[in-house]
Backbone:
């Protein structure tokens, strides 16, 4: 490989890896786990049943891992916990028992991390 081609390849690799990624970073939460946790714990239908939700994900972006801070990220205090920032853009359609529907668009930021038992969990950071 010639030097200009190698330089261009390295530059393209560095540029492509900057900023949020569409795929989870190595060691980060799998996309399926992110969706399952949010759909169950954050946006899920009421426990009494009847209402059905469908989710249409428009974007799911992963940032690089960083050390979590217990005051701002909600990780356990005095721990060396790695958090994985995730931004989600989703359209939720709620179908009620009377046949009516309501649509809600959400653009939100979260941090995901493993708890003391090794299970993925998250904390809400804010609306975009």
Residues:
């Amino acid at each position: 490989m010639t030097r200009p081609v190698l330089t261009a390849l390295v530059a393209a690799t560095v540029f492509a890896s900057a900023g949020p990624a569409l795929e989870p970073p190595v060691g980060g939460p799998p996309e399926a786990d992110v969706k399952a946790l949010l759909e169950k714990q954050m946006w899920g239908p009421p426990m009494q049943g009847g209402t059905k939700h469908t989710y249409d994900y428009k974007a799911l972006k992963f940032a690089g891992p960083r050390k979590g801070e217990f005051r701002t990220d909600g990780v356990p205090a005095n721990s060396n916990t790695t958090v994985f920032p995730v931004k989600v853009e989703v359209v939720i359609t709620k179908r009620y028992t009377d046949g009516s529907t309501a649509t809600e668009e959400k653009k939100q930021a979260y941090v995901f991390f493993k708890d003391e038992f090794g299970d993925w969990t998250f904390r809400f950071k804010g609306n975009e």
Notes: Residues 3-17 have pLDDT under 50 and may be disordered. The longest strand covers residues 82-95. The CA atoms of residues 92 and 104 lie 5 Å apart. Strands lie at 52-62, 66-67, 82-95, 101-114, 120-127.
